[in-house]
Specification:
The complex is a heterodimer. Chain A contains no helices and twelve strands. By secondary structure, chain A is mostly beta strands. In chain A, strands 2, 5, 6, 10, 11 and 12 form a six-stranded mixed beta sheet that branches. In chain A, strands 3-9-8-7 form a four-stranded antiparallel beta sheet, with no helix packed on it. Chain A is globular. Chain B is mostly beta strands. Helix content of chain B is 0%, strand content 48%. Chain B is globular. Classes of the chains: A mainly beta, B mainly beta.
């Protein structure tokens, strides 16, 4: 079984600042994947960034990057130069099963990020 | 289609009624997932289809919940004899292939309120 913990229910920063959202996870799988999904108000959830556990290099996508610490089972998301459109719920999620077949994601409870103008 | 669509967007049911929620995945997507998202919580996995085969239904909370995808495209989640604790947003997601690292594309959800 997998568990994902997000310890920050809400965060608020000023526009253009850098913010880091925390996530820890636990899994018995030897190979797994970690994701950050964004759920804007009244809009569909979309993928922000993905990390493969066997890759040591941290994933980056434009202003979004992760700090993946495998031994500590930590997977934080850094948003640089934050923009008003970044205001949303952010969910950390894990995936992985023996054999690598598709399976449902395990989500954390989410962090509500508010970007102030 | 351009994205995953779900209908209805909102559903109010009286306790004890049966409801059916529809999901139209992205055309050609093999994998389809259903999640339940309670207020203030992250989504929780309900069930997974690979084409028409339901390969995992471990997350269905009770035998009142039933899902199908008979032709490997549209899926329906049915809840029988609804209870107040079934009130939640039901999300559908699809992915192109069958690997666990693939991006899941989510629909807008159906918000179910059971009175």
């Amino acid at each position: 079984a997998q568990t994902v913990t997000q310890s920050q229910p809400e965060m608020s920063v000023q526009e253009a600042e850098t913010v880091t959202l925390s996530c820890t996870y636990d899994t018995s799988e030897s190979n797994y994947y970690l994701f950050w999904y964004k759920q804007p108000p009244s809009r569909q959830m979309i993928l922000v960034i993905r990390q493969e556990a066997y890759k040591q290099q941290n994933a980056t996508e434009n202003r979004f990057s992760v700090n993946f610490q495998k031994a500590a089972k930590s997977f934080s998301l850094k948003i640089s130069d934050s923009q008003l459109g970044d205001t949303a719920m952010y969910f950390c999620a894990s995936s992985g099963r023996v054999g690598g077949g598709a399976d449902g994601l395990t989500f954390g409870k989410g962090t509500h990020l508010i970007i102030q103008p | 289609g351009a994205g995953v669509s779900q209908s209805p967007r909102y559903k109010v049911a009286k306790r004890g009624q049966d409801v059916a929620l529809r999901c139209d995945p992205i055309s050609g997507h093999v994998s389809l997932f259903w999640y339940q998202q309670a207020l203030g919580q992250g989504p929780e996995f309900l069930t997974y289809f690979q084409n028409e085969a339901q390969l995992d239904k471990s997350g269905l909370p009770s035998d009142r919940f039933f899902a199908e995808r008979p032709e490997g495209s549209v899926s329906t989640l049915k809840i029988q004899r609804t209870q107040q604790e079934d009130s939640a947003v039901y999300l559908c997601a699809s992915s192109l292939g069958v690997a666990s690292q693939e991006t899941q594309y989510f629909g807008p959800g159906t918000r179910l309120l059971v009175l």
